[in-house]
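Quick check before the chapter quiz. The format below is the same one you will see on the exam, so make sure you can read both the input and the output lines.
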Amino acid sequence: MFVAIEHEGQQWTVKADALTAGPGHAVDEAAYEALRAAVVRLVRERETGPDAYAGPVYFMLHGVPSEERARELAAAFHAALYGDLEPLRHAVPDPDRDA
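Here is the expected output.
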């Protein structure tokens, strides 16, 4: 699993690539849907650029405003790609679900 953050001028990029985890790893449907929905929420909230890419095996967020936020999102995406959705729920809450 490749997950990284990258500094781009004043902003940050988060990249996550599940393909590098090897042939035995598969992202399950629940994780993919949660990641895709999180990317949509991040774009809507303008925490990432509209050119964000949401899977199914590669995810990229451009324009993340700080290194701290980029690290939080990278860790949450990494956990979700291994099936642990709790860090993603914490990092990118769903107002409809959490209301």
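If your answer matched, good. The chain has a mean pLDDT of 89.
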